[in-house]
């Protein structure tokens, strides 16, 4: 603990979706992580260094990408470092991702997961 500040550690990132089970299945297939908690409306995956959790939100509204006035705004997105954009992109598509119509930078590809959350695959140095 730093003087005057309690120790606070990020335990997980939670993504809401219409179906926690379906979104967790997508990321489990994409990343090869193991399921460590599995309930109808809550799933937690664990990777080598961190985890992702998924929560069912019956009124989930996918964000608009790219952002548009009046549209549901993206609260966060995930970035994944890859060695080969084409290979990783093909894998993401096979798992159920969609390539975003809007791409903004060389060395980075934006995809949408099955619940509509944007995520990026990027090369080192991008």
From TrEMBL:
It holds the Pfam family Glyoxalase_6. Residues 9-125 form the VOC domain. InterPro entries: Glyas_Bleomycin-R_OHBP_Dase, Glyoxalase_6, VOC_core. This is VOC family protein.
């Amino acid at each position: 603990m730093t003087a005057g500040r309690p120790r606070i550690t990020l335990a997980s990132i939670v993504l809401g979706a219409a179906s926690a089970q379906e979104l967790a299945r997508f990321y489990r297939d994409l990343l090869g992580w193991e399921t460590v908690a599995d309930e109808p409306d809550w799933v937690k995956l664990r990777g080598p260094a961190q985890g992702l959790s998924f929560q069912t939100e019956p009124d989930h509204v996918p964000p608009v990408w790219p952002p548009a006035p009046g549209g549901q705004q993206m609260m966060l997105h995930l970035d994944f470092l890859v060695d080969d954009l084409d290979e990783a992109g093909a894998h993401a598509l096979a798992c159920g991702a969609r390539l975003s119509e809007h791409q903004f930078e060389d060395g980075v590809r934006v995809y949408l997961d099955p619940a509509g959350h944007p995520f990026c695959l990027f090369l080192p140095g991008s």
